[in-house]
Amino acid sequence: MGSIYALVAMGFVLIYKSTSVLNFAQGEFLMVGAYICLNTMLSFQIHFVWAFVLTMCFSVVLGMLVEILILRPLTGEPIISVIMATIGLSSILRGLVIAIWGNDIRPFPEIFPPEPYVFYGIVVDHVYLWSVGGALLLMIAFGIFFKVTRMGTAMRAVADDQQAAQTMGIRVKRVFALAWCISAVVSAIGGILIAFLNGVGMPLAHFGLKVFPAVILGGLDSIVGAVIGGLIVGVLENLSGGYLDPIIPASTQVAPFVILVLILMIKPYGLFGTHEIERV
């Protein structure tokens, strides 16, 4: 479960790493991706692979439209204005989903083999193995992207100083659009994986906030931190659910935030976050 959190956390980090904005509509991106994939399979009677590809294409378009229509007019405005815009976007996406597909939770078709793997007595479903592999591949790909490619370097430059990057010839608008497209795609992948376990419904949107402790824990601008933070939160939720819930009800929801506060008291920038030094 932590690997699925890591995928969604990567979407948070990608937006913040390139635009210095926290996207509070990340959970809604996740939910919309799952709905699109499910309804594409059911409406057109196509295989999951093709529905997945179409969902990724839709996510690219969604991320681009959000950046062009909502975020681009706010370029240069205070960060709080952009954050409020993402909160408004989350409400809009929820309303659209309810208007189109309703509020019922729908089961996702069986894609993976029902027989789980057994490793030394530990039972692991196929969906978790795919999520672990996907998280690792995306982490490696994004790490190489930000360190090696020109666009990755441009995204880091824009996150550091938009005006300075623009004076150096970097097309800031293109960088923003790419960041939102990638984030929407990563979130859709996470939404589809969670839908295999919990079905497709409005509760998927809540995973955006559930992943937030993982993002802060790992460091807002660290891809590796997002993955490790997601794994830590996933493990904490499952352990607290198994051992603490019988004693302290709802401890599953609280445990990640308690650990988050304790770690931030020691490392204010998260486990792998960049330390900012300002001259006064």
Structural classification: mainly alpha
What helical percentage do the residues reach? over 70%
Mean pLDDT, rounded to whole units? Answer: 82
Distance between the termini: 43 Å
Task: Estimate the global geometry from the Cα principal axes.
Answer: globular
Low confidence ranges: none
Biggest beta sheet attributes: 2 strands, antiparallel
Number of strands: 2
Number of domains: 1
Strand content: under 5%
SSE layout and pairings?
Elements lengths: L1 H18 L6 H19 L3 H24 L7 H23 L15 E3 L2 E3 L1 H23 L1 H11 L1 H6 L4 H27 L8 H12 L4 H21 L7 H16 L14
Helix pairs in contact: 1-5, 1-6, 1-8, 1-9, 1-10, 2-3, 2-4, 2-8, 3-8, 5-6, 5-8, 6-8, 9-10, 9-11, 10-11
Quick summary:
With 280 residues, the chain is mostly helical.
Explain what this protein looks like in three dimensions:
The mean pLDDT is 82. The protein contains 11 helices and 2 strands. Helices cover 71% and strands 2% of the residues. The chain has one domain (2-207). A hairpin with a 2-residue loop joins β1 (117-119) and β2. With 280 residues, it is mostly helical. α1 packs parallel to α5 (126-148), α2 packs across α3 and α3 crosses α8. It starts with a helix and ends in a 14-residue tail after the last helix. It has a two-stranded antiparallel ribbon with strand order 1-2.
